[in-house]
Design a protein that fits this description.
Length: 476
Amino acid sequence: MVFSFLSFVHLTLAVAVSLRIFSRRSSRGSALAWLLLVLLVPAVGALAYLLIGERRLGKTWMQRAIALQPQILRWAQRIPATTVVSPGFLDRGAESISRLATGSIGLPLLGGHHLQLLADSASIMRALIVDIDAARTSVHMEFYIWSAGGFVDELVAALVRACERGVSCNVLMDSLGSRAFFRSEALAGLRRAGANVVEVLPVNPLRALFVRLDLRDHRKIAVIDRRVAYTGSMNIADPRFFKQDAGVGEWVDAMVRIEGPAAWVLEAVSLSLTALQTGADFAPPPPPELPRTGDSHVQIFPSGPQGATRHIEALLLTAVYAARREIVLTTPYFIPSEPLLTALRSAAIRGVRVILIVPAKVDSLLVRYASNAYIEDLLSVGITILHFGDGLLHTKSMVIDEQITIFGTVNLDLRSFELNFEVSLIAYDQVFAVQTRRLQSEYEARSLPLQLAQWHARPQWRRLLENAVQTMSPLL
């Protein structure tokens, strides 16, 4: 009798969740992973699907997102023609990337920039503090993680000084990523000084019934006086102190300092998320008149879970298929979609040199096993895979033919493609591409290559575990 009742509950849960999955347009891998989980452990699977199975931003957020989209497009169409560059002068591959980027999110190719690659956390923080201390009108920051201690305390002091001299300071912090910081004296000091602090995507048990709590704001953006901006992989955290108990070493990051119109475009991207979170109007100030600071052509490419299309995946696929000689990628988390895996393998098969640099250790055991399941597929077609051994390599970069660079916050995993608010800089600049490629070469020198024969020799139990975890990778 008990068995029959449990069987009935099992069947009912499996059917109910299956119908829900089939009623929505999900990726095949994601749908199959959820079905497998529900069939194997129905109660746990059904609860997990209720909590994180769908990209639920909540009714209010989605209403705001629908209303906001045409406002953003109208704003983008009014970007001054003096800053917009036609992609027709680019070579064929770069032009296809640029046109896809504009067609996807509406932001055009912009000219007149100076780009500076900052390759270590200390240099990044020093430069950022100098710019904040020089700010005259505004500082706008949006970061996933704020973690007090070390040079972060110096940054907070610089923001307080800016507030005290009348500079408008606005700070967006992800609720989950910066959870400890929200309880810190540093945050209280910022608010007392007059900084406007916005908690993005608040986390609490009640919201879990209506909103998927692992949809996060993963962006890293700083804009000073709407003239200078930073983006890249580094959070507001001192690697000497941050997550030192994780057993992966210090986090290794890089950022790009941007002078030019992309600065106020990045600010507008961040203001759009402010409008989503607070319900305020999306009303960026008019673009400032900036002197031409360099010859770099760039595009800003935001992405997020509010849309049904995985725009960032489409951009990366277009970049991979545009490559003719070399693709070099760095990412801390590598759990590719099937289309991206196929694109990388196809590039190697047609003779493109493909190099993937990932950390030897990451701060998630499941991610490590899922990532390892792809290694044989990549090594077998001649892709070079390097394990970085000097900490958790956190830089997210792609350099195509030493001509095009995609640089920002996006990891090569489904979480970045589907669930996180992200931002990428696309630079059509050979000088910056060579600089980034040089940094990647420094990472290579601190890494060990994986060999196919040695990989084949790993224990069978590990192969089975990696493949089992990889099956569930759409859920990680």
